[in-house]
Write a structure and sequence with these properties.
- By secondary structure, this protein is of the alpha+beta class.
- It folds into two domains: 7-208, Metalloenzyme, LuxS/M16 peptidase-like (Cytochrome Bc1 Complex, Chain A, domain 1), CATH 3.30.830; 229-417, Cytochrome Bc1 Complex, Chain A, domain 1.
- Helices cover 44% and strands 18% of the residues.
- The chain is built from 16 helices and eleven strands.
- It has helices at 48-55, 65-75, 99-112, 117-135, 138-150, 164-167, 172-182, 198-208, 256-267, 273-281, 312-329, 333-350, 354-366, 374-382, 386-397, 411-414, and strands at residues 7-10, 16-21, 27-34, 78-83, 88-95, 188-194, 229-234, 240-247, 288-294, 299-307, 402-407.
- A six-stranded mixed β-sheet has the order 1-2-6-3-5-4, with helices on both faces. A five-stranded mixed β-sheet has the order 7-11-8-10-9, sandwiched between helices.
- β1 (7-10) and β2 (16-21) form a beta hairpin.
- α9 packs across α12 (333-350), α9 crosses α15 and α10 (273-281) packs antiparallel against α11.
Length: 418
């Protein structure tokens, strides 16, 4: 199957290879994406997807961990990985002449990682330190607290890093079992963008990415039950870290472009209503912004602010006031025009990177999304009207609302603000 800007091949075992050829660059970004993230874990293996991301770098029968790193350093390339709630990606960015090398080493890591106990033991400690660092950073931790409060009975409410108790129990048997179940052909998308030939990438994947055959793991998709909720973690912090929000949209929602504009106007930048009202006009916060997350079966819309505890009530009140205004009155023609220009500018600038283009292909495929050309993306953004934005705001914000805080406050101090 081919398209005007990408090529796609599904191999016999189910591995998908999708590429975008860019003749005007000399680099190539290659990612091996697995359709497994924190949402796919059992309670006993919470954090295993992220732990596996670490372990793939820790040596194979033919390479030590140091040799894997040295290999990409010698190529002048980049080697990294990341884990989300719905996928894990291992990627490299190299000169076009080193594509064969990059695919071979990435494949070796993903296929043949030893998962040896002598490597697992110290890496467990590394991840436990990562969890401690996260917990000590309240402006990070608040976002996981919000997600778990919004979706307490849904796997998307679970933290990507897992729990200390589960991570502390990981061993070779647990890691090997997880890999055997999830690191199979039907769960894999290989995405590449840059100065490459599609047929060549397909050939390299066939040769090196020899994973066990298996079908796509069921994702357990279901709509979460969301109720209005307040959760306050009392902590002796200098600031009250606040997340206020609602259930959002699925990744395949036709309203996702409207949501981008709503998000941009409400809290997406320095000209947004929340930034102007809370920071510029009232001086109540240094950081204030909104964002939206789109998942296979649901989504979340979140507004964050960090402020002195004594100002928390005023900040939450202003957030709610701005939400009410946009729900009742919609947005102005100038805001609509400005946010469209901003979103289109970000799209174009973002796609000047081979890694961003590779990520767009891989993420869209692994979450069953559309892969749209730049012209199609721009057209979808341009088609949004002010009425669309107001209608979506009314639908989103009329549902249950969730407030999460990490602050030197008690829940009863802010219960009236929900």
């Amino acid at each position: 199957m081919s398209n005007t800007f990408y090529d796609k091949t599904i191999l016999d075992g189910g591995v998908e290879v999708i590429t975008e050829t860019i003749d005007t660059v000399r680099s190539v970004a290659i990612g091996i994406w697995f359709a497994v993230g924190s949402r796919d874990e059992s309670p006993a293996e919470a954090g295993m997807s992220h732990f596996m991301e670490h372990m793939m770098f820790k040596g194979t029968p033919t390479r030590t961990a140091a040799e894997i790193s040295q290999h990409f350093d010698r190529l002048g390339g980049e080697l990294n990985a990341f884990t989300s709630k719905e996928y894990t990606c291992f990627y490299a960015r190299v000169l076009d002449e080193h594509v064969d090398d990059a695919v071979e080493v990435l494949s070796d890591m993903c296929v043949s990682s030893l998962l040896a106990d002598e490597a697992i033991t110290p890496e467990r400690e590394v991840v436990l330190e990562e969890i401690s660092r996260h917990d000590d950073t309240p402006d990070d931790a608040i976002h996981e607290l919000f997600a778990s409060t919004l979706m307490p009975d849904h796997p998307l409410g679970l933290p990507i890093l897992g729990q200390r108790e589960t991570v502390g129990s990981f061993d070779h048997a647990a890691a090997a079992d997880f890999k055997q179940r999830h690191y199979v052909t039907g769960n894999v998308i290989v995405a590449a963008a840059g100065h490459i030939d599609h047929a060549r990438v397909v050939e390299l994947v066939k040769r090196y990415l020899t994973l066990p055959e298996g079908t796509r793991t069921p994702r357990g998709e279901r709509e979460p039950v969301v109720s209005s909720a307040l959760r306050v973690v009392r902590k002796d912090t200098e600031q009250a870290h606040i997340c206020w929000g609602v259930k959002g949209l699925r990744a395949d929602s036709t309203d996702r472009f409207t949501l981008s504009i709503l998000d941009s106007v409400l809290g997406g930048g320095m000209s947004s209503r929340l930034f102007q009202e809370i920071r510029e006009k009232n001086g109540l916060a240094y950081a204030v912004f909104s964002y939206h997350s789109l998942y296979l079966d649901t989504g979340q819309y979140t507004i964050y602010a960090g402020t002195r505890p004594s100002n928390a009530e005023q900040v939450i009140t202003l957030i709610k006031q701005e939400v009410e205004k946009i729900t009742q009155d919609g947005i102005t023609a100038d805001e609509l025009s400005r946010s469209k220009d901003s979103i289109k500018g970000q799209l174009v600038l973002g796609l000047e990177s081979t890694r961003a283009r590779m990520s767009r292909l891989g993420k869209s495929e692994v979450t069953n999304g559309e892969i749209l050309s730049l012209d199609e993306l721009v057209s979808r953004v341009d088609a949004v009207t002010g009425d669309d934005v107001r209608d979506l705001a009314q639908r989103l914000f009329s549902g249950p609302r969730v407030l999460a805080m990490i602050a030197p406050l008690d829940a009863e101090d802010v219960a009236h603000l929900l």
